[in-house]
Write a structure and sequence with these properties.
The chain is α/β, with parallel strands linked by helices. Helices cover about 30% and strands about 20% of the residues. It has a domain at about 535-655: ANL, C-terminal domain (GMP Synthetase, Chain A, domain 3). It is globular. Adenosine-5'-triphosphate (ATP) binds near residues 268, 394, 418 and 419. It catalyses: acetate + ATP + CoA = acetyl-CoA + AMP + diphosphate.
């Protein structure tokens, strides 16, 4: 697979950013990489000692004896909640604001580190009193609230393994996860506010628990949020506010092995049935801390805002654990980017003087669309001068979306950390470092120090820069997935497949490295590679070309079997101006076909162009191309759609012009 087109725009980190940066300049970056290269154990061991409080220090860094079930810092003991909260209070940050919570309706609540510690301790004591102990699994089914973070931290404090289920999931999806993790308790809320609406949580929980397969669940803890009338089952259900009321505000943490599971989290389901990813305590926390420092260059004065939900790994690493473990002030937002209007993010950055803003390409694309004909919600209509750094995560960011973000949100002054990573990796893997790496729109640039990312062919052999291939990681790293919960065989098969030699971590994404710079660009999921007349192409390049057309807000590209060319390109497009029909649609389709032909080349010209009001997305906002492939073929969707956000859109996209 070779790139069809070269992106040549380069943006250097601003000089005054470099001056104060944690990793100031490429030489500093290369020095760290060289240290890891020279003495891998020494590099990680030193960082782990420096960044984490160990109750009992570890004596061995990495144990590879049962590979690929790697173990890090195993005989050391620590506690994630202690590292996030007690440590800050002990360092004199007790009165510092840990969380600026903005509710859906705009109400703002600030919580200091001291208050956060007390709330977590009370909840941890209450959980212990109910008999929940270290190693038990607890499902958390809550929205973006302070209580959600308290619940996660309280589990961590007593060694219980949490598994957060996004508050938008159905009863069935929730039930599957409750059963799969073997939960003994569920922590939820009566309801949640989203976009001006009050939505149920407890009622869905009751439905999930109604079948008897969830028999291990002995307790349901309900946080009062919306005041919605709900049923409380005697002997099982209690109010979170009641059980913490009389608890002590201190709680001795459970000192666990670094390898003790901190949480289980299900992947987004973009490529298939979600996998229950198990993470460790020590290695996971180390990487959450280091990436806060390296990628986000976090400083004591920063106001950090990650817009993810605690239901996704981004919310775990960059809301619940990372920012608190480095003593930062962070914004936690309950609502949605489009309520009360599509200027909500910009309004909040202005109001809270956010300095670091981390969001997803899907949000950026939708806000580009919303502001394309409404100046009032355009970022330029707000004072965003507090920002000094931007981030992107979740999907490849199209170069044109990158440019818009850079210019309109970052005022052409803020570096963008395009962070490539996965639920399985625990934290960032490939990303520009804001004070070091020259940026190229659409490229996640270079691996973080210590991360041995590479591109190989289907037999696991290195491919030269300039040729596309399969993205792998060659050595274990501290925050990597430990196993798939209840399914170690699937873990080995999915991530360390025999075909690649059994010792390379397979990310599942295709990528290409630039010949000159060595920069990585993600070309799309491995399963999505197109083969047209023998030319192998990534989906990303054609999608980005379409998004660069002024009419287009979003695009997804898939292949469809074709007698003549082996595979034909089928594109699904969302226009900024809404869905065209009839002759209009035909006209735009021809225009877009010619556009791709001109910009990339005739080989990439789509055969089939379809329009929708939206694209099928996971609840974390990722395009589900696997469903589009089925639709492009004209078949019925029979795959797992448990994480599909908008099933109704499928019908619309069946319509070919
Ligand atoms: P599933 O594994 O269930 O199919 P998923 O892969 O979407 O779902 P996540 O772990 O949430 O689940 O997402 C990780 C994936 O997101 C990566 O493998 C990659 O495809 C994509 N991704 C995340 N960040 C970036 C980025 N900055 N650039 C390109 N792709 C990214
Ligand atoms: Mg995945």
């Amino acid at each position: 697979m070779e790139p069809l087109k070269q992106e040549n725009r380069v943006f250097n980190p601003p000089a005054d950013f470099v001056k104060g940066a944690a990793i100031p300049g490429m030489d500093a970056y290369k020095k760290l990489c060289a240290e890891a290269e020279k003495d891998y154990d020494g590099f990680w061991g030193h960082l782990a000692k420096e960044n984490i409080y160990w109750k009992k220090p570890f004596t061995k860094v990495l144990d590879e004896s049962k590979a690929p079930f790697y173990k890090w810092f195993e005989d050391g003991t620590t506690n994630a909640s202690y590292n996030c909260l007690d440590r800050q209070v002990e360092a004199g940050l007790g009165d510092k604001t840990a969380i600026i919570f903005e509710a859906d309706d705009g109400t703002v609540t600030k919580v200091s580190y001291k208050e956060m510690l007390e709330r977590v301790c009370k909840m941890a004591n209450a959980l212990r009193k109910m008999g929940i102990k270290s190693g038990d699994t607890v499902i958390i089914y809550m929205a973006m609230t302070i209580e959600g973070i308290v619940a996660m931290q309280a589990c961590a404090r007593i060694g219980a393994i949490h598994s957060v289920v996004f508050g938008g999931f159905s009863a069935q999806a929730l039930r599957d996860r409750i059963i799969d993790v073997g939960a003994v308790a569920v922590i939820t809320a009566d309801g949640q506010y989203r976009g001006g609406k009050s939505l149920p949580l407890k009622a869905i929980c009751d439905e999930a628990l109604s079948t008897g397969e969830c028999g291990k669940v002995k307790h349901v803890i309900v946080s009062k949020r919306t005041g919605t009338a709900i049923e409380m089952k005697a002997g099982r259900d209690v109010w979170m506010q009641d059980i913490v009321a009389n608890e002590a505000a201190t709680c001795e943490p459970e000192w666990v092995s670094a390898e003790h599971p901190l949480f289980i989290l299900y992947t987004s389901g973009s490529t298939g049935k979600p996998k229950g990813v198990q993470h460790s305590t020590g290695g996971y926390l180390l990487w959450a801390i280091l990436t806060m420092k390296w990628t986000f260059d976090i400083k004591p004065t920063d106001v950090f805002w990650c817009t993810a939900d605690i239901g996704w790994v981004t919310g775990h690493s960059y809301i619940t654990y990372g920012p608190l473990a480095v003593g930062a002030t962070e914004i936690v937002f309950e609502g949605v980017p489009t309520y009360p209007n599509a200027g909500r993010f910009w309004d909040m950055i202005q109001k809270h003087k956010a300095t670091i803003f981390y969001t997803a390409p899907t949000a950026i694309r939708s806000l580009i669309k919303a502001s394309s004909n409404d100046q009032a919600v355009h970022p330029k209509s707000y004072d965003l001068s507090s920002l000094r750094l931007l981030g992107s995560v979740g999907e490849p960011i199209n170069p044109e979306a990158w440019m818009w973000y850079y210019e309109n949100v970052g005022g052409s002054r803020c570096p963008i950390a395009d962070t490539f990573w996965q639920t399985e990796t625990g934290g960032h893997m490939i990303s520009p470092l804001p004070g070091a790496t020259p940026m190229i729109p659409g490229s996640c640039t270079l691996p973080l120090p210590g991360i041995q990312a590479a591109i190989v062919d289907e037999a696991g052999h290195d491919v030269p820069n300039g040729n596309g291939g399969i993205l792998v990681v060659k050595r274990p790293w501290p925050s990597m997935i430990r196993t798939i919960w209840n399914d170690p065989d699937r873990f080995v098969k999915s991530y360390f497949p025999e075909e690649l030699g059994g010792n390379l971590y397979l990310a599942g994404d295709g990528a290409i490295r630039n010949k000159e710079t060595g920069y990585f660009t993600i070309t799309g999921r491995i399963d999505d590679v197109l083969n047209v007349s023998g030319h192998r192409m990534g989906t990303m390049e054609i999608e980005s070309c379409l998004v660069a057309n002024p009419l287009v807000a979003e695009a997804a590209v898939v292949g469809r079997p074709d007698d003549l060319t082996g595979e034909a390109i089928c594109v699904f497009v969302v226009l900024k101006g809404g869905r065209p029909t009839g002759e209009d649609a035909k006209k735009v389709a021809t225009e877009l076909r010619n556009w791709v032909g001109k910009e990339i080349g005739p080989i990439a010209k789509p055969k089939d162009v379809r329009f929708g009001d939206n694209l099928p997305k996971t609840r974390s906002g990722k395009i589900m191309r696997r469903l589009l492939r089925v639709i492009a073929k004209g078949e019925e969707v029979t795959q797992d759609t448990s994480t599909l956000e908008n099933p109704a859109i499928l019908e619309q996209l069946k319509e070919s012009l």
